Amino acid sequence: MRVVYLAAGAGGMICGSCLRDNRLAATLIRQGRDILLIPLYTPLRTDEENVASQKVLFGGVNAYLQHLSPLFGYLPRFVRGWFDSRYVFDRIADRAGASRPADLGALTVSVLRGEEGRQRAELEGVVDAIRELKPDLINLPNLLLIGLARRLRQAIGVPIVCTLSGEDIFTDAMTEPHRSQARALIRERAAELDGFIALTRYYAGHATRLYGLPADRVRVVPLGVAPIEAAAGLAPRDPSRPFEIGYLARICREKSLHRLVRVFLSLREQGRDCRLHVAGYVGALDREYLASLQREIAQAGAGDRVVMHGEVSHDAKIAMLRSLHAFSVPADYPEAKGLSIIEALSAGVPVVQPAHGSYVEFVNDTGGGVLYRPGDEVALARELTALMDDEPRRLALARAGRDGARTLYSDEAQAQAAWAYYESVARR
Q1: Are 220 and 293 in the same domain?
Q2: CA 93: distance to chain centroid?
Q3: Same domain, 76 and 192
Q4: DSSP letter for each residue of 216-243
Q5: Could you tell me if 401 and 345 are in contact, meaning their C-beta atoms sit under 8 angstroms apart?
Q6: Model pTM score
Q7: Residue 219 has pLDDT above 60, yes or no
């Protein structure tokens, strides 16, 4: 069986969905499965070996230009192909992170309309390219691209499934009337798909209710990461070293790094010997947000105790995780995925997370962390302090998290579950 997996590039950003999709495809290839990973919009960026095709389908620049004017869809294909070149993508990467969902509502609705939208030329390019690959099943990357399904099924006639990857954050941020239009189109077109893959139990239920998905077609395939060799988290803490706290996620207000910074500064004011590590992508619209946090840290005289790693390579990410004693991404919104939480657990680092979204099942499934009331900085400080003061408990959480992540959230388990689902859909 051949699976064509379409993955949505995120411009210049290394995003959790790209990392997950690439890791899934790479593991399936290693297991001898016939899967092709093909990017849409922009090339995929990942911190591991990239197994995706170099050719981009449904190019983001072309989709945008055709939305501005249908005339761009009539340009010769070789001209439109230039807009999908690496040269162009490298030059727009920064701008790709400078758009809010509110600015992209009309374009999103048009893409969801598929063959009835303004991106018909791009859609036909996707159909032609995938038809040549002769797939037995197609996996769409998210519900925002569900508009491709009808035409693909009509032209190729194979089962189509869609990954659920946190689309609610995007559609919730859209303005009316586009928000309601997008949700209505998703509900309409979802009935035409053969199945849906949710990465967490939380999001399986949430997306099913929000978008009216057929519940009997939604399957949970848990996130998976390659095992990470544990270090500091599983060793007794050296009293001469600070207590190392880590954050790894996109640096933006939605992920609430400001809460962790405030908590860290309060711990320092209490005389706690701790250090904060911050890593993640910063988009153009979030640079002032980061700058404001850096000013706050400097004013508190803690600049030498905060390490800003920026966007890290795979090796640098692993090195940072292995140096930590605790980890937190205190996002105010319920997270659909949260890949970095699984990575921290796999590295033997206890996590301190808000009690909502996917975080609840990660902590409860592995026993590798603690939960607190979302938005409660006092509770976050209290839980971090408890880990500092209770070394046996911290070590017990570290071991449980490592073992649980490696058992329940490994890349091998993810690949096996995904392929079993593909086979069941293909048979059905």
Answers
A1: no
A2: 18
A3: yes
A4: GGEEE----B------GGGSPPPTTSPE
A5: yes
A6: 0.92
A7: yes
